[in-house]
Structures are given as C-alpha cells and as structure tokens.
Task: structure prediction
Amino acid sequence: MLKTNKEISTLIDNCELDKALLAIQERMAIEESEHLFYLRGKVFLKKNNWKLATDDFLMSKSLNPESPATEQLMMIKEIMDFFNKDMYNQ
Result:
C-alpha cells in the first residue's frame, strides 16, 4: 500500500530513512510531484548526501517556485559557504 506524504514525513522525522526512501520511490513510480522531490531531498540531506539532496530540492523548486525546497537550498548554500571559507583560513 502506498504511503501518504504525511506518513513519509513521519518516517523521515523518525529517521527511518530507508523506509521513507522506498515509500517515495514507490510513489514516484506512479507520479512525480514537487513534494515527493522535496521529501526525497530531505532524506538525502539526513543521509549527508548533499549532491542528491540539492538535485532533488532544485527539481522541486523548478516544479513549484513556492516549494519549501527553496529554504533548504538556501540553508545548504549557507553551510557550504561557511565550510569553504573555513578551508581558506587554515
């Protein structure tokens, strides 16, 4: 049975990331939505896969410019800018 966005969000919040990823993949086989890309981006972010998280957040934002993925992208940029500046100061 397919999980709802809310059920997937609960899995992510409970750090059941592999289950959440599987549920998202099952839903994406039927439909692709900006929210599913956003949720998958959150899973990848929690797994510390910044590249895949950024890709999914960008896809979510391209489908809906009002997506909460915009905030996630800004956060990733700020973190990366911080880390890059530190590297120059060593």
Notes: The radius of gyration is 14 Å.
